[in-house]
Specification:
Layout: H1 2-9, H2 15-22, H3 29-38, H4 40-62, H5 69-81, H6 92-99, H7 115-136, H8 139-159, H9 165-177, H10 184-203
Helix pairs in contact: 3-8, 4-5, 4-7, 4-8, 4-9, 4-10, 6-7, 7-8, 8-9, 9-10
Length: 208
């Protein structure tokens, strides 16, 4: 299932407009409405939490890869800095541009087919949307971030019987859209670790 989903979406060629339209499908309507109505700090909290849960997929799967030290540092710093939700990051737009130069996010004729590459792509994509929403304050960018996160956990649920990741993600997205940050970082860190472990299980070679 990873192959089908990632091939359909992994190499966008027509920019943000079609991406935003496609991203409207998985985030619950009440969450999207809350993001539109509350804006500002709530949007920044929502995307910070999404990034905390999903960016570890990229960071963990690319750790130790030759020549990726600066990319990994950017991701680690960005996940940390997004939690400063009082105001937008001064260099958020520059970080978006840097992320868009990652090989995982480059347009191409062929979609991503390898399981590890698929999840690394989505980890980078969620962080890209999170930084963009932080910069613009646009609820559509936040919804795009939430949708990408839900796509990933939906893939995991379809490939791991009884995983329940999508229900957890929906609950945490609903919680963050209220603007209540109490315990959200801790819950998101735990969720991110659990998802990374699940992905490692998907990428491990079969036992002989």
């Amino acid at each position: 299932m990873e192959r089908t989903r990632a091939s359909a979406r992994s190499k966008p060629t027509d920019g943000l407009t079609s991406e935003r339209v496609w991203m409207q499908t998985l985030v619950e309507g009440a969450i999207a409405e809350a993001l539109r109505d509350r804006g500002g700090g709530v949007i920044r909290l929502y995307v910070a939490a999404c990034a905390e849960r999903m960016a570890p997929l990229f960071i963990g799967l690319r750790a130790g890869a030759p020549g990726r030290e600066a990319d990994l540092d950017l991701c680690v710093r960005s996940v940390r800095d997004l939690w400063h939700t009082g105001q937008p990051l001064a260099d958020a737009a520059e970080r978006v541009s840097a992320l868009e130069r990652f090989p995982e996010l480059q347009p191409g004729e062929e979609g991503t087919t390898h399981v590890a590459d698929t999840y690394a792509f989505f980890g980078a994509l969620v962080l890209r949307h999170a930084l963009l929403a932080n910069s613009t304050g646009d609820a559509r960018d936040a919804v795009a971030c939430g949708h990408a996160a839900l796509t990933v956990v939906g893939m995991l649920d379809q490939n791991l019987a009884g995983a329940g990741f999508i229900a957890e993600e929906q609950q945490l997205q609903s919680r963050s859209a209220t603007g209540d940050a109490a315990g959200l970082w801790e819950a998101s860190v735990t969720a991110g670790r659990d998802r990374f472990r699940a992905v490692l299980g998907r990428t491990a070679p079969p036992a002989r």
